[in-house]
Amino acid sequence: MTNNDLKKKWFEHFKTAPKQLEKMSEVKGLISAFNANIDAVIKVSGKKIEEIINRLNMDQKALLTAGDKSIKSNEDAIRGLISCFKSGIAEEWIIQKKEVFDWLNENIGYDKLQMGGQGGIVANVMAACGVQDVFVHTASSPKEQSQLFLDLPNLKNVNRNGELEKANSIDRSEDIPLIHWIIEFDINDSLTVNGEIFTCPKSNRFIATYDPLNFKLAIDEAFEKRMSDTSTRFEYIILSGYQMLQSELPEGESGIERINQSIKIIKKWCANNPDNIIHFEIASTQDKTIRKYLVDKLAVDMDSIGFNERELIDILEVIGEDEIGEKCNKETNSSNLFKGMLKVFDYMKCPRIQLHMFGLYITLQKKDFRITPIQNRNGMQLAAVIAATKAGTGSINSNDALLWAKDREVSDIGLNELRKLSETVTEKFGENNLIEDGIYINDEIEIIAVPTILIDKPITLVGMGDTISSISLVGAR
């Protein structure tokens, strides 16, 4: 089949999106935890980066040198930005010093403030999609933070008295604002550093984060208690926010102990809602000890796990699969990434894992998982439509605007990656019809793959992975 023929076939598959969106209003409750913050978003050009480097007389050779993916100096912030720009990748680096935070505020600034943190972004998306009760956790919820939640009655948080209230109207004035920088850049823009010209291969962003509460996975005690109450009903828990943890935290605390504490809390929540599905969205976790502990100790209790290309490679690194990890790094295509997924699937024993890569989503799950392959495909297609809507319009804040991209064709890039995946599945498991139907089943596993809708000039890419993972799962009904 030609790509044009396949586009027509997938156009028919994607017609389920409106119905799937309607079905999301059947979901009675969902917890989104743990991280929400304020994102200060700015789009920078290569020329702007060059201007900062030259104005401050930075060591350009050092800016191209690989090192720790953390920010201890002004130069580290620019080094991380350049690294992401020249590779077209997204990474999040932690700012270690408040002085660097102040420097970024003065020298980079921002174009707008918006909801940040996977937990906050997922909560807004789920509320807009019509989930009946969305309970969102915030370590800090002053007015500046709360106003970034959608003004919807189904989106709830705890107020200073520990009572559930519309999240948008809460003002815990004693809490401090938590601000992250999202520095976006465009495909085909160019940057000259130390005499070398770098052309950005893909629109993406670099995240520089200074956040003393989410750094240590601070969990609000009132929220914890309210979610443990027998009257609180939910069907899903979407977990995120662990990526900022480090092995050693300030004041002698342990990052591993913070993970252990969160696991105890999650088990308490689940005690009253035993049939819920728990999804863990893995983000770019720089501390390898924390990353390995999350894989070994948190992932084993999960029903579902989501990650992007970079995060998959990071997981492969800590489970001893360096060879396939290196292949994925050098040739980041669906064939290599799927091989990496198989390694992760075998290691983690999690029944469902999902990769959202550029142009293609792939779900790998155990045979007879409680979400069927068709349900998965329908959820992933809805996620593709809403993600494209977010990229194309910059906003998915109301239910009636979510399907803006529903009549667009899937991308050639996605179809080409789907072909590569199908060839690899044929080599490993046998003949399949992934290219046309996106589903392969054998006696042990189920593979679901969906080519996506790509927007040439996206208005925003912030929170795209969180949007894709959460809708793919909760919209799979």
Helix content: 40-55%
> What sort of overall outline do the alpha carbons produce when their principal axes are compared?
globular
Give the distance, in angstroms, between the N- and C-terminal Cα atoms. Answer: 30 Å
Strand fraction equals 15-25%
Biggest sheet, in brief?
A: 11 strands, mixed
Mean pLDDT: 94
Q: In the residues, how many domains can be counted?
A: 2
CATH homology superfamily name of the largest domain:
Ribokinase
Query: Architecture of the largest domain in CATH?
Result: 3-Layer(aba) Sandwich
Structural class comes to: alpha/beta
Give the arrangement of secondary structure elements.
Layout: H1 3-13, H2 17-23, E1 30-33, E2 37-43, H3 46-55, H4 60-63, E3 70-71, H5 74-87, E4 91-95, H6 98-107, E5 112-116, H7 118-128, E6 134-136, H8 143-146, E7 155-158, E8 164-166, E9 179-185, E10 190-193, E11 196-199, E12 204-209, H9 221-228, E13 236-239, H10 255-271, E14 277-281, H11 288-298, E15 304-307, H12 309-318, H13 322-330, H14 334-348, E16 352-357, E17 360-366, H15 373-393, H16 412-429, H17 434-437, E18 439-441, E19 445-451, H18 464-474
Parallel strand pairs: 1-6, 1-13, 2-9, 3-4, 4-12, 6-7, 13-14, 14-15, 15-16
Antiparallel strand pairs: 2-5, 7-8, 9-12, 10-11, 16-17, 17-19, 18-19
